[in-house]
Design brief:
By secondary structure, the protein is of the alpha+beta class. The protein has one domain: secretion proteins EscU (name from scop). Helices cover 43% and strands 14% of the residues. The chain has a two-stranded antiparallel sheet with strand order 1-2. The protein is globular. 9% of the residues are buried.
């Protein structure tokens, strides 16, 4: 019998002028994860599916900086988001 995976969602925030490292802004499992993903879609926020990273981020307290050992994984996500933002700006002539 296969176990149903619990959906997880982590929200990262990073403002280089304010933050020393990316910060876990929100985290949820199950229903809360679904709501976080719905909000992201509603506001046009890019999402990345990375279950192992979500599990690692679930061990952090909301509001805490991502530890250095996760920088490589999180950097890939930040690059993806930056590219999405650039694509949006190129297509629509403005930044969100």
């Amino acid at each position: 019998m296969s176990e149903k995976k619990t959906k997880r969602a982590a929200v990262l925030r990073y403002d280089p002028e304010q933050d020393g490292a990316p910060v876990l802004a929100a985290y949820g499992e199950g229903y809360v994860a679904e709501k976080l993903l719905e909000r992201a879609e509603e506001y046009g926020v890019p999402t990345v599916t990375d279950e192992p990273l979500a599990v690692l981020l679930s061990q952090l307290d909301v509001g805490s900086e991502v530890p250095p050992e996760l920088y490589d994984l999180v950097a890939k996500i930040l690059v993806f988001v930056a590219e999405m933002d650039k694509t949006y700006a190129d297509k629509y002539g403005k930044r969100k």
